[in-house]
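So, read this over?
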Amino acid sequence: LKIDPLSQDLSTTQSTCQLSSASDQGDCNPARTVSAICLELGKAYLDKGDLKNASETLEKAMKLLDPDWSPDEAGRVINNFGNADGLDLRRLNVRNEYARLLKDKGKYADAESVSQVTLKAAMERFGTAHSTTQNEMRLLADILTSEGKFTEAESLHRAVVRSVEVSLGPESLDMAYYLNQFVIFLRHRDF
């Protein structure tokens, strides 16, 4: 009998997410705890290609962080970042993964809308030198590439490479990663 560690982790995390959301009592903030668990679970589902469970889990995370949120309004402007305890960063990260989910589902226009709003919020909140902003720029570039908008995508790839070079230096591992992503884009574009 072979046990897939990722499946086992997904199952455990999913159970924890369901149990935690059923309990809204105690000294901790269940919405924050559960949203963090759901974010990680949603990312794992996305990485495995399980779009149905990724969708359900990421939507639950968004709803916990923003009770007024609905999938129909995914691209709406973020007016409330939360406070300085990390809620704002978590909300942006969940939106980033939701845009990735939409891209993986082939809903490119919706993914672009969510990603543009999230990028704008990240730039306003953290500036271009922050890893969240840089990651969102790269995701938006990937979405634009999927839509065939190569000029816009190339501009974003170049911007993220410049930003990482300035913030972390030309020898950083992140710089190598983003340069590699840019090379992959250039090869894809030229075919």
